[in-house]
Each structure stands twice: as structure tokens, then as C-alpha cells.
Amino acid sequence: MTLAGLSLRDLEYLLAVAEHLSFGRAAQACAVSQPTLSAQIRKVEELLKIEVFERAPRGVLVTSRGAEVVAQARLVVAEARRLFEVAAAGNAPLEGTFRLGVIATLGPYLVPFLLKPLRARFPHLRLLLSEGYTRQLARQVEEGELDAILAASPLPGPELTELKLFREEFVLAVPRDHPLARVEQVRREDVPVQDLILMSEGHCLREHALAYYAERLSVDRPDLQAASLETLRQMIAAGVGVSLLPQLAVQVGALLDDMVAYRRIGDGSISRDVALFHRPGFSRIRDVRLLRQAVQQILAEQSAVKVAATLA
Questions:
Q1: Which of 46, 148, 269, 283 has its Cα between 20 and 30 A from that of 175?
Q2: In terms of domains, do 185 and 242 share one?
Q3: Do residue 37 and residue 98 come from a single domain?
Q4: For the segment 231-272, what is each residue's pLDDT rounded down to a tens digit?
Q5: CATH number of the domain enclosing 203
């Protein structure tokens, strides 16, 4: 069997179909027409002499043998991307393209404070940002699609190297007419668990809230769930319930301050640690450490945003 008919682009098409389980959505993600993508997938299947995907009326399924091919394709594409990492390792510090993922409950509230100072410090840095769920971003780092991610610790899923950044307190957000809005600080045991709005499945903020208030799982309130932090904030403003919000989201989101009150909980120990994660053996570890140092310095210099503590 010759490799002459197989390209890395073919493998990227293969991975896109496996991820989206749809030829149409995979073609959109790869910015090609569906007939082009379908033809290349069929070419790969003929070359390998196996059916990777089962075409069903309601979508696409990965066959049992196809799953092995997809897993190997991920490794091949990830190693190919390392060619660019190796080439970039000898460049000036934080120069060129750096692909950074940020979890959705952190990106909109932290990144705006970082962009201008980072451009001033590293004028030749081309920072490509990607936002998503923790597990999704971690998988993209593992497979070489991202260089590093900003996420809350501990990280579920693949084992990545962790560089701690800072600790961020959670505060209790309540409607302005809620009894707890009239107190300066809320005791941990006074948080009304039965009214606690959770983030939807996939958000690590949901897991953090349940780690502190596991009894919330016994409350049958499927209506108390939000897909984003801003939807959650709006639900609180509408009087639907209360929730834990990260401190950075409170400092940035002033739009509904006349309808939502934020109160510190106890001694501030209800919090999350934020860190940079990268693949073990990543050839641009120097750049990741420089980015970590820059983020910590920028936060220390900012008067408009505060975190509980920077972490060593």
C-alpha cells in the first residue's frame, strides 16, 4: 500500500466528519463543498479498504474499525502540527502565531484586560483565540489544534501540564429585592441551595458549584439552568433564582447592576484556581511560561480588575 494518495488534508476531513457526524457540517467546518469532502472521504475508505463511516438516513456513524482509523488519524495530524511547533521554537519569544483556548466562563471577562498589554509587550505575537467548554478545549490541546488553554483547575480529561495563574473567588449573585441583598456578606450555610441556578452540562462552573453545594442535585428544578453566564445573570435579574458568579464576571458585567446584587460568601474560600495548560513535551514551553508571567503581571498592574491571589 502506498501513501502517495493520502494527504494530511484528507485526514483533517476524516476527523471533521467524525467530530460533527455530518458531512454537511464537516464540509462547513473545513470550508469546502460537501461533494468535495464526500469524494475525499470515499477515496480514503477505498485506499484503506474499509468503511470508516456508516451513512444513515439520520446522520453518520463511525464504524468499529473506523474508530481505530480515526484515533490513528488524530495522532498523525497532531504529530504533523508539531512540525510547526519545532520550527517556531527557535523564534524570538512569543513571536508568530500562538493558538490559545479560553473557557467560556472566563474569556469574555479576562481577555479584554489582556489584549492591549500583550500587544504592547509582544508586537510580533499573533494570538488566535478560541472559546469553548473545558473538555473540548483540552482535547484540542492534546490533538495539537491549540497550543495552550486558560481554564479552571483541576482539569478533567487528558493529562496536561499545568501552570497556575491566579485564584478567583465566587460571589453570590441575588436579585436586588432578595433578603440576602440587604446584608454585606453571606455565610456559606445561608446560600439558598434550592434556588441555585446552575450552568448547563459541559461548563466547569457547574461542577464547581456542585462541589460546594452537592445537595443542589437533590433539588428537582430543571428550570434553574443557564447556557451562559450572561443568561444566568439575566435570570437572576428576573428573580428566577440565585447563583455563584466568578469575581471577574462581576467586575466586568455592570449592565444589570441595578437589578442584581453580589455578596461575598464567608471567608472567600469558595473559589476556583485558573491556570494555563499545555501538552507535556510541548516544544514552545518557553512561550507558555512567558505568557503566564505576562498575564500575572498585567493583572497585578490593572486597577480595574482584581483577583483573590496570583499563584506560584
A1: 269
A2: yes
A3: no
A4: 999 999 999 999 999 999 887 765 567 788 899 999 889 999
A5: 3.40.190.10
